[in-house]
Amino acid sequence: MTLLAAVDLGASSGRVMAAHVRGDRIDLTETARFPNRAVNVRGRLYWDVLGLWSGILEGLRAAGDAAAIGVDSWAVDYGLIGHDGHLAANPVCYRDNRNAAAKTKALEQVGAADLFAATGIQPQPFNTIFQLAAETASAHRALLIPDLIGYWLSGVPAWEATNASTTGLIDLATGDWSADLAGRLGLDLGLLGPVTPTGTVLGPVLPEVAAATGLALSAKVVATASHDTAAAVAAVPYEGDRAAYISCGTWSLVGVERDEPITGVAALEAGFTNERGADGSIRFLRNVAGLWLLSESVIAWRAQGLDIELAALLAEAAKAERLRSVVDPDDGRFADPGDMPARIRAYCAETGQPIPESPVEVAACVLDSLALAHRRAVAALEELTGEAVETIHIVGGGANNALLCQLTADATGRPVLAGPDEATALGNALVQAQALGLIAPGPAARRAVARASARPRRFDPRGPETPWGSAAARFPTCVA
Ligand code: LFR
């Protein structure tokens, strides 16, 4: 048995998992979980990266004698490092509003279709390319969040490939930073170093990290699939062909794996993106606003003094009238942190639907709406790839939300296989295990271990899809 530590940072919480590699399977135990939420200071949304670092050190201390550590997190955000090697500015959250104007300006210089054709990345305001265009601080290096943590752990700067692909600055043809795009947008490529192949062993932990955590000086830091979605997709326990995945947490990332990108205007307009997978494959997927709508609602209710218990709320929402009111989760108004129930009510009022008042009604509306958005994305996937989707794997925290899994099966008319819920940490550990030679290389060997490590729970559609089809047709923005 070999012990690895998987550090997995999400937009609402971070965790450290001890991964016990036992030949043909990996068992995970959580050693620390700590909250994460963007912090608003003078109108700018920051991440509390130092709070995360403290949580990581605590989790590593509790993990014991790990042979290696890998870090994954949400994509696109970065920390700036000065010439002295220290943090030069606090990382800004991708939901900060500095990006929208930068995106508009950049798209005037390089059209959306050209940008998409060159990089395969859906132009979204939060892409690193637009964040760098909006950046006011100057620095020596920009390190994406997992690379920043990896640098603090090992002293070695890296630009891991799966996460680098999400920046919107990697040329699809070369797999390297696009000097052309950087030149046209006036971005300093000197901030970025060579793209680091996924699974590179960066080196041992720094002595100060070993001292703070009790890790051995020989413990290695591995550049795992550091984009959380890439890590989750690396651990999908596919059981057959023609399966799509939904990596479901703050976001629902709905997609398939492919050998080749799809960069035509239809994919651009349908909101799809082509990110790098752990083995250099393409993760062709669409970002659907996910359980963020629910988690922000819970925060708003608790701030109002309501005593909300999530499991009880979901149990009631399961019994609520279905499809009473639905919203398009991807409507821009839901993107910023804030009072989600109020925004949902405003949307329903504007569209002439019954207004969800109680938390149960709001939760039912959110879950029906997410299931509909999953349906829309799966339909678009089939159309764009020309390949049928027969099964849907839901992985990540959303796999524990039985109601969402059932509604997704109902709305899409496809069986849903739910789990593993810790797909991201599992994928993180699987890629590390391969880098250390504990598991044979390649996706097939990795998926065999993923299958042995977690048995998915199956949800079959309960009835005809018809009501979902007509609910989707209620909105021009929500057509299936
Ligand atoms: C999911 C995720 C998505 C990315 C979004 C923003 O956690 O990494 O893949 O588009 O967060 O970084």
TrEMBL record:
<dbReference type="InterPro" id="IPR050406">
    <property type="entry name" value="FGGY_Carb_Kinase"/>
</dbReference>
<keyword id="KW-0418">Kinase</keyword>
<keyword id="KW-0547">Nucleotide-binding</keyword>
<dbReference type="GO" id="GO:0019301">
    <property type="term" value="P:rhamnose catabolic process"/>
</dbReference>
<keyword id="KW-0808">Transferase</keyword>
<comment type="similarity">
    <text>Belongs to the FGGY kinase family.</text>
</comment>
<dbReference type="GO" id="GO:0042732">
    <property type="term" value="P:D-xylose metabolic process"/>
</dbReference>
<dbReference type="Pfam" id="PF00370">
    <property type="entry name" value="FGGY_N"/>
</dbReference>
<dbReference type="GO" id="GO:0008993">
    <property type="term" value="F:rhamnulokinase activity"/>
</dbReference>
<feature type="domain" description="Carbohydrate kinase FGGY N-terminal">
    <location>
        <begin position="6"/>
        <end position="233"/>
    </location>
</feature>
<keyword id="KW-0684">Rhamnose metabolism</keyword>
<dbReference type="InterPro" id="IPR013449">
    <property type="entry name" value="Rhamnulokinase"/>
</dbReference>
<keyword id="KW-0119">Carbohydrate metabolism</keyword>
<dbReference type="Pfam" id="PF02782">
    <property type="entry name" value="FGGY_C"/>
</dbReference>
<keyword id="KW-0859">Xylose metabolism</keyword>
<dbReference type="InterPro" id="IPR018485">
    <property type="entry name" value="FGGY_C"/>
</dbReference>
<keyword id="KW-0067">ATP-binding</keyword>
<protein>
    <submittedName>
        <fullName>Rhamnulokinase</fullName>
    </submittedName>
</protein>
<dbReference type="GO" id="GO:0005524">
    <property type="term" value="F:ATP binding"/>
</dbReference>
<feature type="region of interest" description="Disordered">
    <location>
        <begin position="452"/>
        <end position="473"/>
    </location>
</feature>
<dbReference type="InterPro" id="IPR018484">
    <property type="entry name" value="FGGY_N"/>
</dbReference>
<dbReference type="InterPro" id="IPR043129">
    <property type="entry name" value="ATPase_NBD"/>
</dbReference>
<feature type="domain" description="Carbohydrate kinase FGGY C-terminal">
    <location>
        <begin position="244"/>
        <end position="435"/>
    </location>
</feature>
